[in-house]
Amino acid sequence: MLPKQYRLKKKSAFKATYKVKNSSHSGGVTLFAGILKKENDLPTKVGFVVSKKVHKRAVKRNRLKRLMRESYRLLLKEKNLGDSQKYMSLVFVGSDRALDKDFTEIKCSIKKILERI
Questions:
Q1: What's the total number of domains in the chain?
Q2: How far is CA 89 from CA 53, 68, 94, 97, 108, in A?
Q3: Using only C-alpha atoms, what is the Rg of the chain?
Q4: Are 58 and 93 in contact (CB under 8 A)?
Q5: If 0-12 CB within 10 Å is exposed, 13-18 middle and 19+ buried, where does residue 108 land?
Q6: Helices (H), the chain
Q7: CB atoms within 10 A of CB 54
Q8: d(CA 82, CA 86)
Q9: For the chain: N or C, fewer Cβ within 10 A?
Q10: CATH code at 69?
Q11: Which domain holds residue 18?
Q12: How far is CA 93 from CA 14, 42, 96, in A?
């Protein structure tokens, strides 16, 4: 599980991240990046979203969120996040193309997005 200090929780924080319109897409996962940090000592907050329009079953949506969350956690543990730690917040959005993928494919997609941003 992602530590509490790294979680994006408030609806206003999600909206502010979307408003910046800095996004990247790969393999059914889209990343929205917020504004750049002024101080580098604050942790980057991360949120994971899978819309109800992607799949009507909550089990499928939650599985995709768990896969994205765990792959980000492992990349954070390896310190393999690239320049993504320069941003205040990140929001990963899963689409219907990512529903059928396994853990390694999701992890590769997230790693590719983080290197690109």
A1: 1
A2: 24, 16, 17, 24, 21
A3: 13
A4: no
A5: middle
A6: 11-20, 58-78, 103-116
A7: 19
A8: 9
A9: N
A10: 3.30.230.10
A11: 4-116
A12: 11, 23, 10
